Recover the amino acids of this structure.
């Protein structure tokens, strides 16, 4: 086990996951944040991250390098995944905790050949600089994994920031947002509504029981200019994890109407 005290006051700890030979867990403040299998970087343990990884798989032909920005670094699980499945991809990761990414990469090294710039700072303040940092006009994927319900930073959980994210995308790009929420899904409803005001299309991927609004958990929102066609919807559903739901923009609107009435 290794640990470090972060500037924000919380303790970060990396320890074996207890159920695999090579897996490790990053905890911050006693709460699990990330899982990494250094020997198998294409293995994604957490369900919501697996759903995001699936959308990355569907973004471009298999193995084709992409550009990606990760806002909220954790243990860099998806940085590792993208390098393993799309070698040659150019990536950047941003985290507000100065010590975290160095602590993680020292103890859980990134896969050989990984091209990922590590940036310390606030995600919104750094966003405008990121394309220039990589020398690209925009990102194929921007992954925002910071939110924890209604306590999420207000300057990141709003329509104006989503517009800034959209402006930082490439023509084929997508924004993937993990929304953790309580029963009733009040925060999810706010964020989905805001995204629908900004993006041409917003998809939703989650575990089936989340659609009832009765459970706490994670839902993934994908903002894109691309309509979710039937073939892609079927593919994402088949990829799981199961039980799974994959909603089109219209189906997401219907869900929001149902949640508002409940």
């Amino acid at each position: 086990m290794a640990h470090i005290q972060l500037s924000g006051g919380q303790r970060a700890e990396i320890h074996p996951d207890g159920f695999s030979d090579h897996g490790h867990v990053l905890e911050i403040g006693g709460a699990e944040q990330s899982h990494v299998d250094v020997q198998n970087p294409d293995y994604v343990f957490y369900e919501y991250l697996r759903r995001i990884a699936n959308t990355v798989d569907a973004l471009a032909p298999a193995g084709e390098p992409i550009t990606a920005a990760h806002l909220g670094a954790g243990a860099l699980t998806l940085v590792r995944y993208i390098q393993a499945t799309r070698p040659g991809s150019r990536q950047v990761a941003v985290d507000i905790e100065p010590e975290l990414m160095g602590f993680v990469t020292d103890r859980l090294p990134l896969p050989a050949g990984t091209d990922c710039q590590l940036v310390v700072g606030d995600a919104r303040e750094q966003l405008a600089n990121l394309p220039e940092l990589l020398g690209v006009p925009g990102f194929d994927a921007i992954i925002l994994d910071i939110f924890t319900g209604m306590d999420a930073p207000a300057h990141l959980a709003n329509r104006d920031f989503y517009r800034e994210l959209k402006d930082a995308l490439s023509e084929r790009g997508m924004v993937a947002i993990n929304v953790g929420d309580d029963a009733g899904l009040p925060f999810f409803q706010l964020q989905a509504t805001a995204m629908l005001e900004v993006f041409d299309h917003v998809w939703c991927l989650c575990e089936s029981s989340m659609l009832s609004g009765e459970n706490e958990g994670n839902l993934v929102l994908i903002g894109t200019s691309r309509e979710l066609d039937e073939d892609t919807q079927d593919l994402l559903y088949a990829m799981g994890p199961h039980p799974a739901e994959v909603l089109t923009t219209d189906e997401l609107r219907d869900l929001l109407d149902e949640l508002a009435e409940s």
